[in-house]
Amino acid sequence: MQFLKTIAVVGTFGAAMAMSGGAFAGCADNPDGDYCKLAGSNPETPIGTKWWPHPIWGAGDEAGSTNWYKQPEVVMRALATIKTGMTMEIGHEYHADMPLFGARKFSLRIPGTPTGGAFGPNA
User: Fold this and answer.
1) Is the dihedral of CA 69, 74, 75, 77 positive or negative?
2) Separation in Å, CA 111 to CA 11, 94, 96, 106
3) pTM of the predicted model as reported, rounded to 2 decimal places
4) For residue 105, which of 114, 96, 118 has the smallest C-alpha distance?
5) Distance (Å, whole) CA 21 – CA 37
6) DSSP category for residue 120
7) Backbone phi, then psi, for 65, in 5-degree steps?
8) Residue ranges of domains in the chain
9) Which pLDDT value is given to residue 96?
10) In Å, how far from its chain's centre is CA 23?
């Protein structure tokens, strides 16, 4: 069993190295390193040119690419696939009594809230 684990780890490491080698090879083969340079001589952001606000959605947009799903033709295409009208809940309800593996426990921690119990007008 240990042998199989070792083979799996070595194989995974080898595959990762093989995939990452292509990116490095592109930089190493080019003496000028053009593949590794950012676009433009004075980049506006650490990754190159400024990409936000999006030219289609504007500066006040908060939905991003989900704006595409609000277009009428996309909605009609989705409605055409409905056959039974059945809905499914894809969320998961978290509670203290849910089954967990081993000695694990569910603890919800919300950063930035006080630790002294309930607070606010509904407390």
Assistant:
1) negative
2) 39, 18, 19, 16
3) 0.33
4) 96
5) 17
6) S
7) -70, -15
8) 1-37, 39-79
9) 80
10) 22
What CA–CA distance (Å, rounded) separates 104 from 96? 11
**DSSP designation for 103:** T
Report the distance separating Cα 13 and Cα 20, nearest Å. 11
Could you say which DSSP state residue 58 is in? B
Nearest-angstrom CA–CA distance, 48 and 42: 8
* Residue 4 burial (C-beta neighbours within 10 Å; 0-12, 13-18, 19+): exposed
Tokens of 36: 């590794």
Q: Are 93 and 85 in contact (CB under 8 A)?
A: no
Looking from the CA of 119 toward its CB, the CA atoms found within 13 Å total 6
Tokens of 3: 């042998």
4, containing H or E segment: helix 2-29
| Amino acid sitting at position 92 | H
- As averages over each run of 10 residues, the pLDDT of the chain (123 residues) reads 67 60 53 57 74 83 86 92 90 84 82 66 71
